[in-house]
Predict the structure.
Amino acid sequence: MYQFYHFDTYPINTTKSSKAFGQVSKEFMRHPSAVPHIESPQPPILRFGVDAYQAEQIIQARIKKAKDARGRKIRKDAQVCISSVVSFPRELEQQFPEFYEDWVQRNINYFRRQYGENLLSVIEHQDETHPHLHVIVGMPDTKEPGKAALKNIHSPYMKRDSLEGSKTMKNTAYNEACRKMQDDYYSRVSVHHGLLRTGPKRKRLTRKEYVTAKREAFLLAQSLRENESLKLNLTKKSERIEIKQRKLSTLESSVKSNAKYIINQKEGLRKREAVICEKEENIETQEKSLLTFLDLKFEPNKAKNFYSKTVKNLKVKLNEYIRLFEEYRGKYNKLTVKYTNLEQINTENKIENTRLKNENRKLRVALQIYKKSDSIVSNDIEYTP
């Protein structure tokens, strides 16, 4: 189980040495006339961007505005698109479907990073021996002379065409750039899914050595995925803790604000209570004075009852003020308890966050140790384009 990554470039018109991209797009879209070599063609699965026919239209539009280095229209046989194909072992796809889905997404991310807005389409085929992806990259969309050439976005062409020297030197630079591109693809995609950089023949391995290498590559991929999953979980936990901390900070601020308000209310109630007590004392004094005075008059009971009723009403109001004071005091006590509990939760969250950071640090150290182990097969085989 090793990586397969191959690319070709195509002109928009057929030449002696190359098919036109229009013919290739029909094959990608499983047009009946273009796939006689497929026993049971299945509809293509669009994984990113537009389908191959739409990609061809986009490239045609870019050709119309493109200029060569001298400001002229580009040649009819100019290479205007890159078509790459990457495949995944059917055995692994069937055994670990989640590996395959992750492999597809990693490829999309890889080619987006490589080609940016020039990546037009990623198409999946499931009707051949191994599932594979066709990647369509168009020439740059620009009117600037010389900037629409593929060498501006494709490193092997860039290395070859920018070198001054013999054809042999240019081919050597091209091959080296292709090897680096394969190595980069391996480190960013294949290594995460248990695929070897090269097959057993290229490495001259025995069957037993090749099986061992496959097993080690797969174990490494599992370890990398587990660590990535753990890192993602830790990140999510950390984010949840940060959200909780922000909520606690907001709640703490609110509690402090409410506590300040309640303290001010309490002080106001205390002053009002003092005033009411003073008034109550004055009323009692006046009541005693009036009752003493009325006892000496002709109709003491009538006046006495009138003033007694007035005093009772005043006492009712006083009791209402006292009840309100007790109510505010109860609310203040509840908020004080809630604030204390929130402070305790915040402290526990800080301790848990520290523990998670320490655990994550240990996992990173373990991963570094694992990467340095001698079990990883070295990638020292040259690339043959």
User: Anything to note?
Assistant: The chain has a mean pLDDT of 81. Residues 233-371 form one domain.
